[in-house]
Write a structure and sequence with these properties.
Layout: H1 2-9, H2 12-70, E1 76-78, E2 87-89, H3 91-103, E3 109-114, H4 129-141, E4 148-153, E5 157-167, H5 170-178, E6 192-203, H6 205-208, H7 212-261, H8 266-273, E7 282-295, H9 298-304, H10 307-328, E8 331-336, E9 339-344, H11 352-379, E10 388-403, E11 408-413, H12 415-426, E12 432-434, H13 436-442, E13 446-450, E14 466-471, E15 482-487, E16 490-495, H14 501-524
Parallel strand pairs: 1-2, 10-12
Antiparallel strand pairs: 3-6, 4-5, 5-6, 7-9, 7-10, 8-9, 10-11, 12-14, 13-14, 15-16
Helix pairs in contact: 2-7, 10-11
Length: about 525
């Protein structure tokens, strides 16, 4: 059964058809039961009517025809007909005795004739509240009033009582007004003599099984509902267990994800887990700004410190530098011993100029942070704290996933990356050295001076390094040595301290010529 329900639930169209068919069967079951109930009621009424007629016929044969034949055709209608030869019952006596005949069968139908005026030789009739009320109504409002009914019963049965008036006719008035045992001698034609009462009782339980089709429908629907609820409960338990397993798996994956994030740069981590980047061996050639730094005389410093203290200092150093790199948008490639390799331009880029500027600003922020860290380390008893050197170069590199199908590394390769490492090696402790390619992109934001051209191993051309002296924005407003102005159609950058005597004369002539052209353009309106 469970398999059948599972198969049914797996096919929504068939399940919907079954539900619609079940709903369509409900009115069919109701109609069949109503027809059956009607058949049962008609059969019971026919049987009751047949039994009543049979009893009445028997009563009439015995107490009327039989008595008349015994008296050789003589008939005397009297109330005490049984003690009179040829006596037959008068209508009131007939009604009373018919009630006993019909009610004596013990069925659910009873007939009764009652009156508050009985002959002196008879027992007074015991009337209840319904009967007294009916008599008062008929006598007060008229005998032409419709029959009076009362419906009652209990939780397990229902009954209906019907009361109709018994009216005095001419023959009855003459008899009752002259009879010596009559309790009333002023009857008139049409007066209410008493009540003719019919009572029918019907046990509710007797009709319950008359609704056999409806009960069968509800039994089937109940069975289906119980089976469906049972299956839903089982599925709910399965889903609950699966949800628990999924929550546990998600918690495990979240923990693993957090651990993996410690081994990847935030940009690479986001690109992989968001689905933007596939974990396959592939590379691209992009223009990057590469940053390389290491600690001067790290070996010597490490020999002066205990391993635990060295590990703590190095972790503090990498933590602080990584935070600054993250704030500036750098992709931290790796830590190589005491060195840091990072780059700008992949997987996210803001443009070559903006990437170069962000890299230089990051390097300056790192050197400033190193000054604060060195002060803190000296107060902790470190005699010779770390001093870092940094090199920055901009150029095309291959960037992407390198390695094998089982193990790969997201990194960069190329001569431009090697050049950044070479520039770092010639930087002074606490200094930053740029390549010309980087300096050309940040001349409007960085103050730097050229160094002597050098030849580096692995680099075929001579390289002109630039020593960073600070950001132009950091120069005092009244220093007067740096002019950095730009607008639409104009860009002026002049570092007076970096200009030689010969260049000053040439630049003065260029600026003078520029002033003349500006004045001429202003006079002509162009």
């Amino acid at each position: 059964m469970s398999a059948s329900f599972t198969a049914l639930m797996a096919r929504p169209a068939i399940f919907a058809f079954v539900v619609l068919a079940a709903l369509a069967l409900l009115p069919v079951a109701v109609w069949l039961d109503l027809r059956h109930l009607s058949d049962v009621a008609l059969r019971e009424q026919a049987q009751s009517l047949d039994a009543m007629i049979t009893d009445i016929r028997g009563y009439y044969a015995k107490n009327v025809v039989g008595r008349v034949n015994a008296a050789r055709g003589r008939a005397i209608p009297v109330h005490n007909y049984q003690v009179v030869d040829g006596g037959i019952p008068i209508p009131a006596t007939l009604s009373l005795e018919l009630g006993e005949v019909i009610g004596g069968r013990g069925e659910n139908m009873h007939y009764r004739f009652v009156s508050d005026y009985v002959f002196k030789s008879r027992e007074p009739h015991q009337l209840d509240a319904f009967e007294w009320g009916a008599l008062e109504t008929f006598r007060g409002e008229g005998a032409d009033k419709p029959v009076i009914m009362s419906v009652g019963g209990s939780l397990f049965d229902r009954n209906i009582r019907l009361a109709a008036p018994v009216l005095m006719g001419e023959t009855c008035v003459a008899c009752h007004n002259t009879h010596p045992e009559s309790p009333k001698r002023d009857w008139k034609v049409g007066d209410v003599r008493g009540l003719q009462e019919v009572e029918i009782a019907q046990p509710i339980a007797a009709n319950i099984f008359s609704f056999k089709y409806l009960l069968a429908y509800f039994a089937g629907a109940g069975f289906f509902g119980v089976a469906f609820a049972s299956m839903q409960w089982r599925q709910a338990k399965i889903f609950q267990r699966l949800n628990g397993d999924l929550e546990e798996a998600n918690s495990f994956l979240a923990a693993i994800s957090m651990k993996i994030s410690k081994y990847l740069s935030p940009q690479v981590y986001r690109s992989i887990f968001s689905g933007e980047r596939d974990v396959v061996i592939s590379t691209e050639r992009k223009k990057l700004t590469v940053f390389f730094s290491d600690i001067k005389d790290f070996t010597v410093t490490s020999e002066r410190l205990q391993p635990e203290e060295l590990t703590q200092l190095l972790n503090e150093y990498f933590t602080e530098m990584s935070k600054i790199a993250h704030d500036h948008g750098a992709t931290v490639d790796k830590f190589i011993g005491d060195a840091i390799l990072a780059f700008f331009g992949d997987p996210e880029t803001r443009g070559a100029r903006e990437d170069a500027e962000a890299c230089v600003r990051m390097a300056i922020a790192m050197q400033r942070r190193m000054e604060a860290l060195n002060d803190a380390w000296r107060r902790r008893g470190i005699e010779r704290p770390f001093q870092t050197r940094m090199g920055i170069n901009t150029g095309y590199c291959n960037v992407g996933n390198f390695g094998s199908e089982d193990r790969m590394d997201y990194t960069i390769i190329g001569a431009e990356a090697n050049l950044a490492a070479r520039l770092e090696s010639i930087a002074a402790p606490g200094g930053i050295v740029l390549s010309y390619e980087t300096y050309a992109l940040v001349t409007d934001v960085v103050k730097a001076r050229p160094l002597e051209p050098i030849s580096l191993k692995g680099i075929s051309r001579q390289v002109v390094p630039y020593q960073v002296e600070g950001l132009i924005d950091d120069a005092p407003a009244d220093a007067g040595e740096v002019i950095n102005e730009y607008s639409d159609g104009a860009r002026i950058f002049l570092d007076v301290g970096q200009v030689s005597e010969r260049e000053r004369e040439r630049l003065a002539a260029v600026l003078k010529k520029a002033m003349e052209r500006l004045q001429t353009a202003g006079q002509t309106g162009h």
